[in-house]
Amino acid sequence: MEKGEDAQDAAKRELEEETGYTPKELFYLQWYYPTSRSNQRAYVFVARVDKKGKTKREQSELQRVKIVSKDYLKRKILSGEVKHGATLVAFALALSRGFF
Fold it and tell me: Can you tell me the distance from the alpha carbon of 46 to that of 96, in angstroms, rounded to the nearest whole number?
């Protein structure tokens, strides 16, 4: 988050910068500590997106956006193919809130 920015504003900005998508709706789910060795928080949001614009990401950031269905993502996670911790946390939170 940038100075003076709250988590929701940061999530909206990051979504637009890194994917080019503008959120129609942004739902805050929860924050968590990604590691026990830090007090840095990771915030989880679910977005319903509207239109795609131009990305503004840095070269070191996300390189590709792939749109998949909720069912596809759920299958990949439940089959054990997805190993990324933050993705698994976000999925579990979204599932528990009825987004899947």
Answer: 12
39-65 pLDDT tens trace: 999 999 999 988 777 777 666 665 677
> Quick one: 72 exposed, middle or buried, by C-beta within 10 A (0-12, 13-18, 19+)?
exposed
Q: Which residues pair with 25 in a beta bridge?
A: 48
User: Can you name the residues that pair with 21 across neighbouring β-strands?
Assistant: 52
H/E element holding 24?
strand 21-32
Query: Three-class SS of residue 11?
Result: helix
Average pLDDT over residues 24-29: 96
Predicted TM-score of the model (pTM): 0.82
Within 13 Å of residue 95, how many CA atoms lie on the same side as its CB? 13
